[in-house]
């Protein structure tokens, strides 16, 4: 039945005499489409070089616009620029050089912005840059858009203005000055010379001001040792590219040791060139990234490590013979290397740090560089301890904190909280209303580093600048701006910084420094003091083991925990354990059997484990889950910092236990007791297969001796298949028709297993570039993680992978083979470790393409395997037919879904999304695209500039993030390109080459220097 109801679009239509209504009735479109603006000028059109294709574009535009105007759709209101900034071109990315300095991570980086939004971190590759963005640095851009950030200052828990905050602080400073009360600035290591100058000016105005530097994870013992020898509170610097023999005692030189950033230099010596590569010997308790990459790994408890270090010193400096035969071999190699050797330590002991400085000085190590000492960790544990005592005694009138959260990170946090009540005025500059900011008088909302100006001295003689890449999102103020206000200096911090830089940097203008991100100054040589090291050696040898050693450490993903609300980092699988969304105590297999502790796999593919209680002194940490860790030294346990936070975190991110409670005296090595508890813990582990089980065609490896003395067919054999009953190389057999791929670009990705350290920076970079969703612990546990790139980690069953191959090949008979392979699933107590990044291999003969019923996945002429999401109907045939298992199925809509309350569920978090890559919906397959948007942008840029693409310009997110040089991307049709030369290298092989998929990703055989 027809409806007689009448509808009005507006009240104006009720007025029958309205001229507006008449106009709307006669016009199909409310506003005329401005086609005449670009087609109506006859002279301009005739004199232009407009092609037929361009003309059709214009016609297409007018037709499409008319069609769009005729349809009813949702109204999206956009506010255009009133005055568009000259540097912003819609659709074109801008890059800004800046520096991250959050008290734990320090690096020169580039920030990619789109339409004014920072969306990605890149490495600053200018010569002289102190770069090396790790997984946390790449993820830091997402922390900018944290919806739980402190959005304005608060006084006593109530919203306040900055005028009220400054008035209250100035009144407190004046009162403290009048009464002679102590004013303490408690900050993290800012390494900012301009901020130090501002603090000095505050001290001049208020003489009772004292500055205490506190780092949550302390390097105080190493700082004390270096200061004792060289007179400067800094950390020794190292260039591992200059070392032929590297001996590390408890130092994760590929992790966060001394601020990190050593992987690039390390990798240069690890790739065999001219028959040579460096030798790396690792002595440690926890299995670390450095230990996993070492040629020789020696698990030892803390007292054994100290004794080994003393033995090395006595042998190198005094000529004594080591008591331990393995240490004797280490000493012989170190002596043979002479100045090409280097010794480092991560032992949290001032005597150990002194001994290492003495050894490197004695051998005149070229890799050891005290002149360029690092200034990235300057915390003083003794002064922090004294501060708490002074607060307890009521001697501190005003406490102003910036970049620290002692109520969470101090082991005696309860004492600090109680003592804080005796402080008359307390201020916390923080991005979050965290454990500390929530109980201080004033919670001062601090900006993210991408909203701030600053300067940083990462090492002596190196000056960096941090610049904002977006206007402040909230009502925040920098600590430096507050210092200027409190000293009644009316100049802005930007102007102050600009003037400071001009007087401290020569040879570069301010604009040039901001453009490059850094400048170099001449570093004055440091002169070593005369120190008697014999006492330090005696102290090391007198240490006796008195129980289980607890080794506290920082994870590659979580670091010191300040980015605990970052879902990219929570979902990031630990490179060693492959566990995400958790921390846990690691224990050796032998100790696990002693305490009846286990891990086991359950029906849904997840991993479970027992709980324990840890006790250090009088402090107890309950219900800590256990991971039985291959390679963990017997008599030791490992536990990571950074978890167990509650304040200012989303519920999903409140995971793990707080290891800082066991960080007695800010020392990472503690004596601990352990007790098994009831219950079982559910882990989100992305890789349950721990060993290769002798499958040498997945990770190919050899020794340096065989590599130098045998032909390539011995250590890198080409797989053979049967063709007409004849053994034929698989490279000569095709099931598919081949095409001529020599015309145009053809992209390949090279991955060198010798250079890959397993750090995972590429994983987070891929997340940021390609809008990869976060799915949460529950989904990861169901093997539904969405990572486009994974880094497989394998242990050997025997002590070496070559031993595994020999064991497997030595089996005969079905029962014997089954029994042997079953045993080989169990890793060695001290295994060799191998890392292998695996993403879509972009096969030229792709099995996924032949089984897709709707042609959603197809091959491009440039070698990329494409995914048309709109065509995909989610059959998952392609995933079943993929031998590499790299295709991911969207089980849910992760965008704008409250069930997945991460950054894609709120408007602020979605600001990080890359507009060049669409956000996928549920029910489709997705996988690595070889960053086709980046290759297209590179080609268009070269086209605009009328030139050929240069080698090195083509990049994927993973290759650009790889600071070790393990990943190289490029056009193999350019025979002068680096990737084309790597494709011809004798070490090159394809993953599962025997199945004939002909991938466009290739690997290089891993070579170990085990002699």
UniProtKB/TrEMBL annotation:
According to the lineage, what is the superkingdom? Bacteria
Q: Which Gene3D superfamilies match?
A: 3.30.70.20, 3.40.50.740, Formate dehydrogenase/DMSO reductase
SUPFAM superfamilies named among the record's database cross-references? 4Fe-4S ferredoxins (SSF54862), Formate dehydrogenase/DMSO reductase, domains 1-3 (SSF53706)
Q: What is this protein called?
A: 4Fe-4S dicluster domain-containing protein
- Please give the CDD domains that the UniProt record associates with this protein: PsrB
Q: Which organism is it from?
A: Flavobacterium profundi
Q: Which residues form the 4Fe-4S ferredoxin-type domain?
A: 747-777, 831-862, 863-892
């Amino acid at each position: 039945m027809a409806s007689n109801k009448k509808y009005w679009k507006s009240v104006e239509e009720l007025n029958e005499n309205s001229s507006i209504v008449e106009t709307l009735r006669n016009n199909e479109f409310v506003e005329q489409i401005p086609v005449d603006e670009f087609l109506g000028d006859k002279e301009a059109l005739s004199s232009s070089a407009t092609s037929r294709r361009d003309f059709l574009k214009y016609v297409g535009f007018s037709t499409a616009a008319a069609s769009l105007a005729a349809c009813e759709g949702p109204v999206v209101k956009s506010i255009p620029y009133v005055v568009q900034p000259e540097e912003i071109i819609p659709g074109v990315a801008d890059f800004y050089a800046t520096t991250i300095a959050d008290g734990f991570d320090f690096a020169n980086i580039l920030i990619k912005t789109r339409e004014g939004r920072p969306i990605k971190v890149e490495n600053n590759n200018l010569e002289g840059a102190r770069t090396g963005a790790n997984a946390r640095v790449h993820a830091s851009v997402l922390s900018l858009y944290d919806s739980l950030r402190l959005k304005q200052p608060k006084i006593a828990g109530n919203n306040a203005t900055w005028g009220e905050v400054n008035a209250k602080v100035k009144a407190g400073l004046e009162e403290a000055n009048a009464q002679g009360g102590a004013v303490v600035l408690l900050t993290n290591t800012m390494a900012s010379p301009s901020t130090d100058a501002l603090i000095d000016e505050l001290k001049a105005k208020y003489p009772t001001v004292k500055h205490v530097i506190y780092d949550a994870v302390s390097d105080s013992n190493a700082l004390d040792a270096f200061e004792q020898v060289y007179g400067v509170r800094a950390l020794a610097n190292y260039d591992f590219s200059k070392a032929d023999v590297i001996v590390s005692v408890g130092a994760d030189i590929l992790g966060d040791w001394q601020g990190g950033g050593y992987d690039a230099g390390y990798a240069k010596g690890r790739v065999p060139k001219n028959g040579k590569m460096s030798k790396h010997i690792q002595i440690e308790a926890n299995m670390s990234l450095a230990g996993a990459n070492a040629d020789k790994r020696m698990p030892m408890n803390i007292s054994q490590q100290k004794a080994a270090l003393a033995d090395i010193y006595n042998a190198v400096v005094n000529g004594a013979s080591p008591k331990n035969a393995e240490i004797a071999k280490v000493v012989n190699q170190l002596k043979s290397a002479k100045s090409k050797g280097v010794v480092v330590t991560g032992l949290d002991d001032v005597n150990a740090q002194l001994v290492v400085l003495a050894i490197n000085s004695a051998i005149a190590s070229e890799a050891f560089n005290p002149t360029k000492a690092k200034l990235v960790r300057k915390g003083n544990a003794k002064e922090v301890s004294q501060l708490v005592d002074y607060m307890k005694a009521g001697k501190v009138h005003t406490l102003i904190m910036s970049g620290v959260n002692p109520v969470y990170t101090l082991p005696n946090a309860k004492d600090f909280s109680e003592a804080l009540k005796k402080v008359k005025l307390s201020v916390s500059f923080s991005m979050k209303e965290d454990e500390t900011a929530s109980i201080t008088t004033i919670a001062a909302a601090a900006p993210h580093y991408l909203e701030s100006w600053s300067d940083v001295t990462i090492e002596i003689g190196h000056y960096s600048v941090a610049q904002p890449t977006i206007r402040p999102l909230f009502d925040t103020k920098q600590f430096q701006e507050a210092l200027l206000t409190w000293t009644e200096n009316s100049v802005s911090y930007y102007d102050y910084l600009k003037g400071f830089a001009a007087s401290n940097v020569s040879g570069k203008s301010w604009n040039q420094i901001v453009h490059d991100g850094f400048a170099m100054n001449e570093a004055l040589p440091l002169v070593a003091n005369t120190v008697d090291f014999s006492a330090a050696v005696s102290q090391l040898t007198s240490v006796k083991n008195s129980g289980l050693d607890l080794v506290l450490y920082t994870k590659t993903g979580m670091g010191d925990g300040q980015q605990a609300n970052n879902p990219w980092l929570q979902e990031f699988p630990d490179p060693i354990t492959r566990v995400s969304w958790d921390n846990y105590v690691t224990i050796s297999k032998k100790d696990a059997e002693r305490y009846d502790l286990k891990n086991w796999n359950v029906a849904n593919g997840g991993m479970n484990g027992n709980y324990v209680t840890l006790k250090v002194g009088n402090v107890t940490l309950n219900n800590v889950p256990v991971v039985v860790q291959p390679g963990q030294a017997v008599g030791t346990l490992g536990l990571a910092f950074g978890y167990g936070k509650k304040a200012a975190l989303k519920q999903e991110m409140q995971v793990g236990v707080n290891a800082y409670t066991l960080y007695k005296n800010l020392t990472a090595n503690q004596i601990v007791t352990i007790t098994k508890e009831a219950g079982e813990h559910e882990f989100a582990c992305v890789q349950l297969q721990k060993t290769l089980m002798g499958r040498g065609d997945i990770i190919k490896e050899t020794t340096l001796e065989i590599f130098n003395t045998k032909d390539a067919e011995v250590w890198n054999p080409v797989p053979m298949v049967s063709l007409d009953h004849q053994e034929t190389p698989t490279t000569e057999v095709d099931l598919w028709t081949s095409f001529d791929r020599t015309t145009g670009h053809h992209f390949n990705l090279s991955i060198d297993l010798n250079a890959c350290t397993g750090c995972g920076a590429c994983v987070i970079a891929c997340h940021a570039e390609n809008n990869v969703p976060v799915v949460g612990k529950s989904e990861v546990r169901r093997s539904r993680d969405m990572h486009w790139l994974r880094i497989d980690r394998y242990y050997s069953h025997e002590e070496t992978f070559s031993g595994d191959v020999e064991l497997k090949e030595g089996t005969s008979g079905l029962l014997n083979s089954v029994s042997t392979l079953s045993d080989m699933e169990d890793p060695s107590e001290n295994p060799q470790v191998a890392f292998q990044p695996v993403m879509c291999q972009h096969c030229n003969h792709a099995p996924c393409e032949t089984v897709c019923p709707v042609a959603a996945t197809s091959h491009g002429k440039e070698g990329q395997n494409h995914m048309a999401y709109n065509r995909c109907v989610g059959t998952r045939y392609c995933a079943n037919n993929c031998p590499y298992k790299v295709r991911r199925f969207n089980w849910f809509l992760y965008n704008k879904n409250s069930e997945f309350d991460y950054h894609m569920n709120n408007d602020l978090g979605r600001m990080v999304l890359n507009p060049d890559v669409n956000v996928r919906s549920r029910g489709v397959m997705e996988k690595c695209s070889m960053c086709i948007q980046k290759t297209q942008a590179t080609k268009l840029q070269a086209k605009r500039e009328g030139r050929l693409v240069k080698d090195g310009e083509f990049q994927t997110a993973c290759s650009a993030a790889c600071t070790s040089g393990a990943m190289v991307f490029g056009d193999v049709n350019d025979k002068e390109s680096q990737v084309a030369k790597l494709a011809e290298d004798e070490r090159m092989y394809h993953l599962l080459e025997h199945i004939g998929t002909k991938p466009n990703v290739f690997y290089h055989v891993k070579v170990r220097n085990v002699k």
